[in-house]
Amino acid sequence: MHPAYSVIFFTVSSGTGYGMLFLMSVLALIGRLSVDPWFTWPSFVIAFGLVTLGLLSSLLHLGHPERFLKALTQWRSSWLSREGVLAIATYGPSGLFALGWLFFVTDAQNPGPIVGLLAVATGLLCIATVFSTSMIYASLKPIPQWFRRDVSTGYLSLSFASGALLLGAIGAITGATAGFVSAVALVGLIVAFVIKARYWRGIRNALPTVTAASATGMDQGARVRSLDLPHTEPNYLQKEMGYHVARKHGDKLRRVSYVAGLGVPVLALIVGLGSGGGAAIVAAVIAAVSGHLGIVVERWLFFAEATHTVTLYYGAESV
To answer: Where are the beta strands (DSSP E) in the chain?
Structure first.
């Protein structure tokens, strides 16, 4: 599939924002979310800003952005529509949770039942929204690289890890979290890339699910190839769904993702947890920046390595 930059930005940006909101809701419920305004204000503003920018970016990917309201009416059958409805619905309880925490909570250990309920609703809606985003891809059977259970777990874990990395950097700069969020980010990042490694290994070792023979209704053992292409120049389907990245280039980019998304952040977080002051701040910022770079590369590969079965009619032998 063609890796559209608007979709890459949307999934990474909104995923980080929802990851931050989810983690803040959990921290509020266990009494570990700081009430320091120097931490809470930028955290909530950045989280909502990333979510909003991501959603606006997703509109650019629609064929007719001005008709986005129509996309929300198909929630019974479309994961894209469900994602849009949930994303809008999340603003309500999460906005009230933020306002309650910023203006009414003075003791992190006793936020009150109303703020607690809003935190629960925020966390659940964040999970549901990111899950719906992942299911836009994981529900597509014609794309074997996406029609997998670990696509959803990968999206959810990377959303949590990226949100924790950014929240940990804000906490280190303001001195509000005392390394707790950075420790959570460290664990979350390792779990996320374990899931991602399993996904990459799975799509590499997977046997072809559809061949040119089966797509044309012939015997599976038959060798079918196109004698001539349907037309003389590439069309929309070939450009959007026939994008191909060489295996050696994909392997190189995977190594970049591992180093930037896992290796550097883990090392920086360990250094930050073992030190204090300016060193801890620098380490947390490096971890957040490098981690997001690695996730951007991962997301580019997620789209670039996906192949639609329609390519069988344009020369591909199997998918």
So the answer is: none
Query: How far apart (Å, rounded) are the C-alpha atoms in residues 26 and 22?
Result: 6
Q: Kindly write down the DSSP assignment for every residue of 50-115, as one continuous string.
A: HHHHHHHHHHHTSS-GGGHHHHGGGTTT-HHHHHHHHHHHHHHHHHHHHHHHHHT---TT---HHH
φ, ψ dihedrals at 211, nearest 5°: -120, 170
CA-only gyration radius of the chain, Å? 22
Structure confidence by residue, pLDDT tens digits, 270-302:
999 988 788 999 999 999 999 999 999 999 999
Instruction: Give the CATH superfamily of 5-314.
Output: Formate dehydrogenase/DMSO reductase domain (1.20.1630.10)
Q: What is the pLDDT of residues 86-123, one digit of tens each?
A: 999 999 999 999 999 999 999 999 999 999 999 999 99
Tell how far CA 55 is from the center of its chain: 13
Residue type at position 304: A
pLDDT above 90 for 70: no
Per-domain residue ranges for the chain? Answer: 5-314
* Cα–Cα nearest to 303, from 261, 248, 262, 250: 250
Instruction: List phi, psi (to 5°) of 318.
Output: -155, 165
Q: What is the structure's pLDDT at 247?
A: 78
Alpha-carbon 164 to chain mean position: 13
Q: Is the pTM of this model over 0.90?
A: yes
Find all residues with CB under 8 Å of 74, minimum gap 6, and list them.
Answer: 80, 81
Rounded to an integer, what distance in angstroms lies between the CA atom of residue 267 and that of residue 261? 11
d(CA 7, CA 54): 8
